[in-house]
Amino acid sequence: MKNPYIRMATGLYINYFLLGMINVILSSNMSFLTVQLNTDKAAIGYLVSAIGIGKLLALGVAGKMSDKYGRKPLVVIASFAYLIFLIGIPLAPNYTLAFVFAIIAGLCNSMMDSGTYPALIEGFGKKAGSATVLVKASISIGAIVIPFMIAFFIDHNMFYGYSFFIPAGIYLLSGIFLSMTAFPNHKAEEQKATTEAAQSVDTFRTEPKFWQEGLSLIIIGFTSTVLFMIVQLWLPTFGQEALGMEKASAIKLLSYYSIGSLVSVILLAVVLGRFIKPITVMIVYPFIALLSLLALITWHNPVATIISSFLIGLSTAGIFQIALTVMTEFFRKNKGTTTSLVNIAASLSFILMPLATGGMSKSLGITSVFILDIAIAVVSILLAVFVAYRYKKVFH
Predict the structure, then answer these.
(1) Is 265 in contact with 137 (CB distance < 8 Å)?
(2) At 350, which CATH number?
(3) Among 32, 239, 258, 370, which is most exposed with the fewest C-beta within 10 angstroms?
(4) 365-395 in b/e burial notation, b at 16+ Cβ within 10 A?
(5) Are 368 and 338 in the same domain?
(6) Domain end among 193, 224, 259
(7) 0.85 cut: is pTM over it?
(8) Full residue range of the structural domain in which residue 81 is found
(9) For 188-218, what is each residue's pLDDT tens digit?
(10) CA dist 178 → 8, 283, 370 (Å)
């Protein structure tokens, strides 16, 4: 029987296709923004921190609003509100106003996450893992498209702001579409979760412990975001400064990274839950990322960089979404609130990492930024191993 929420999922995936563009749009247009805003590359990195600040400001409230008023209102509002950022940044006359627009983008991101993930989990039930991983597929496709779009504008001497205006127009249409689309009844789903929790003796060997697996998954929300965010933010700069690549070619490295992400999440959507467990992916992927990052900083030639970029994209895609799904397996009630806690950790990475890596790139060089990412991969592996141990202890 056809799932009644396919239309909803389509609209949500379009939103995250556009978010994939937004995730790399500042770093991809870094050279243009430094001129427009009369600042340096590190300051553009701080705009990414502003997005994290916006996410952090809204997440606690957004999760509660999602549980109280439903998933649809937050998603629709976020779709329309993203226009402020996408139209505002290319027209911003100064850095302060651009910073405000970046905070608004973070608020939108928070609302969209708090509505989207619970809606997909509630709408697709046993296939929730695949449904949420496809969010990452949508993000990857957007991140593949935008560098080529920007390169086209560069080659034709066109205004870089078109790379912002086109996603803005699509967000407008997506918001209208989602406002007319059915979402799951979140109250009924929460009641079902309450009933399941009351019958947890049939599911759990022992009660989940928030301060163990819950906290570990929240930290994975941080580390999994750092793994891909550092690459998205600094890979073009690495290509230019460490490899001496031309600007357009260095930006295209993000596309190779995103192609790897797309291949990964399509694969996960097929095999996850059938042939491989989510917990296994959470261990194996950071290990592949660790090896790929080592190759990136060791072999300084364009071909090796392209291969490493692809493998990093392959191995960092979907970990965050899987962590969200596993979090709702352990803690079934108030999905909007529990997923918001993982998202808060991700928001902290958006605030802290651009600040830290911006300073590191200035004082220690661009390679030091990727050494930090290697350390984060090691932490991710250790946390995932612990969650896997707890998973076997908790579930039948």
Answers:
(1) yes
(2) 1.20.1250.20
(3) 32
(4) ebbebbebbbebbebbbebbebbbebbeebe
(5) yes
(6) 193
(7) no
(8) 1-193
(9) 656 665 555 555 555 677 777 888 888 999 9
(10) 7, 35, 39
